[in-house]
Specification:
It contains 10 helices and 7 strands. It has 262 residues and is of the alpha/beta class. It has one domain: Rossmann fold, CATH 3.40.50. Strands 3-2-1-4-5-6-7 form a 7-stranded parallel sheet, sandwiched between helices. Pfam families: adh_short (PF00106).
Length: 262
């Protein structure tokens, strides 16, 4: 088997969904892993399975990235164990489908802390060593919701728009220094996200988390700045480029109003 380009990866939100799929995919390529999530039991179960099947090193870090100091905690624990991370996958995230005023400000602050602040902090903490080694990869999970204004998912999609623009900006800064930063824009994916977000996705198409992870790694290895997952999602991404933003807002508003308010 050809040696995989990266040797050690940190995956946030690794206990389920896309993060778990990343873990199994990278483990199959011989990549040693640091897995982070809130659910310690799930992390320990996954790590035992990965060690047994793929004979790799796996470190589990239980932490909640919606808390302010969590990113530094992860970095410090990895540093204490002298682990060098050359692939960072910022996957953890939460969202809500709701009328803006129906959710508390604390909920929105946690969402911004997790989706934006922790992602930026982890990137800033792990990037210097990648630059020192002149080699590294960063995958940031955004969303197709990042591609246009999204009434009724306002805060979530705004955070993912940040992730997309932040990632592509860093791609521009560091690509010629050996670092690839790739933003991934999945649409609906078969994970627990819909339940947590109280999202009515009836009648909508889905991608599997395994497929999202697979296409994400392929995009990174091809040195892409972004990847929209799913052909239909790719086609829909052209709508905001062809129509005025006001018309796009109205289209999304009408669609989401039915989903959120019935």
């Amino acid at each position: 088997m050809t040696k995989f380009e990266y040797q050690s990866a940190l995956i946030t939100g690794a206990s389920s969904g896309i993060g778990k799929s990343f873990a199994y995919l990278l483990a199959s390529k011989g990549v040693n892993l640091v897995l982070s999530a809130r659910s310690e039991d799930k992390l320990l179960q996954i790590s035992e399975e990965l060690r047994a099947e793929f004979k790799i090193n796996v470190v589990c870090i239980k932490t909640d990235l919606s808390e302010i100091n969590a990113s530094q905690l992860i970095f410090d624990q990895i540093a204490k164990q002298n682990i060098s991370i050359d692939l960072l996958i910022n996957n953890a995230g939460i969202g809500k489908w709701t009328n803006f005023l129906d959710e508390s400000i604390n909920s929105y602050q946690e969402m911004i802390q997790l989706n934006v602040n922790s992602l930026v902090t982890l990137t800033q903490l792990f990037l210097p060593q990648m630059l020192q080694n002149k080699k590294g990869g960063i995958i940031n999970i955004a969303s197709t919701g990042a591609l246009q204004p999204c009434p009724y998912i306002a805060v979530y999609c705004a955070t993912k728009s940040f992730v997309l623009n932040f990632s592509e900006s860093l791609y521009g800064e560091y690509f010629d220094k050996g670092i690839t930063v790739t933003a991934i824009c999945p649409g609906n994916t078969q994970t627990d996200f819909q339940k947590t977000a109280q999202a009515n996705t009836q009648g909508m198409s889905f991608e599997s988390p395994d497929e999202v992870a697979k296409q994400s790694i392929e995009a990174l290895l091809k040195r892409k700045n972004n990847k929209i997952i799913g052909f239909n999602n790719y086609l829909q991404s052209f709508i905001p480029r062809l129509l005025s933003r006001k018309i796009v807002i109205k289209i999304v508003k009408n669609m989401m109003d039915k989903k959120v308010n019935g």
